Amino acid sequence: MLSEHSRLKDFPSLANRVYLNTAAEGIPPAGVMAALNQYGQDKLLGMDGRLLHQEQWRQVKSKFSQFLNLQSDDIGICSCSSEAYNLAFAALRLKDGDEVVINDLDFPSGSTPWMSDSSRAVVKVWRNKNGVLDLEDLAKLLSARTRLVTISLISYYNGFRLDVNEVSQLVRKHSGAMLAVDVTQGFARVPLDVKNADLVISSTHKWLLASHGGGLIGVSPERADEWTVPAGGWFNLNNAFDDSRFETLETKKGAASFMVGMPNYPAIYAINAGLDYISSVGVKAIDDHAKNLVTKCLAGIAELPVELLGPAHPKLLSGIISFKHPKFEEINKFLHSESVHAMAHAGRVRVSIHGYNNEADVDRFLEVLKKAILVHAS
């Protein structure tokens, strides 16, 4: 997808190393670094720079909304996905008897707010079977008391990929619950189809190739009232500077209510540039290119004495492959010593493949992985 020249021009830090850890941290293209510098130049203008900051945010809302099949006004931002989920928890105002369904393949930010001491809801866990979440198991957990089902489009743990529309149909059939979807491990890597989600959340420092400090939020306009955060602040209020604020607060609805204070404009500049870069290449082109690399990498790993943790069915593949080995930490250190970057965490090695990877990266990874396993065979 990228020639060697364009790859090193856009991603000079990838020279002489194999980077397969985008699921943790994406490598920003040169345009994102330039955007962060542009923020600095605009900030030097003082208040005159504020209009330039706001224009960057306007562009991000417009561009991100197109990925979600929403409108610009349906898009909000906070500092990260963890903050977004805690604000979502506040918005739901859960009562005794309410039920929330989480799953054991989700990142903690999406599953733990509902389990906090302040939560009054009953939490049910949709548990995986051999790395796969079965919809029949979800159906057994749903009831008229279910207020929320929260899922990830793609699991950070093993790359398992859910069909959001299938989950939505099941949730609507068995309950009146809302569906929240974390797309962090899919946004800018695979084409999104999340039009039937009520709340969509994404971090920005991974596959989007932007910076930290961004938690993008999309709220279905039909459920904006239910996703209105009851928080103090000023950016989220209609009457923040009116005398009426001492009598009652007028909170903005839906996505705008998640923005309780000044947006993180440096991150917004980076996000805008990341969106431009991804769009210039095309998510489908990225997915088509990387899918072949994932298939090749998975086949190579399957030949080794490791335990694969995710599904092998092509429909369920994403950019992430995970496997277990008793010496997973030692193996990852060996990989790193050979300038091959994956991730060792929670008892497994995780490999993630993006559009800037190529066949030579996969070949080198498999070559070094085989050596690492051989060295640590005993």
Automatic annotation (TrEMBL):
PANTHER family: BLR3095 PROTEIN (PTHR43586:SF15), CYSTEINE DESULFURASE (PTHR43586). Residues 18-365 form the Aminotransferase class V domain. This is Unannotated protein. Coiled coil: none annotated. Pfam families: Aminotran_5.
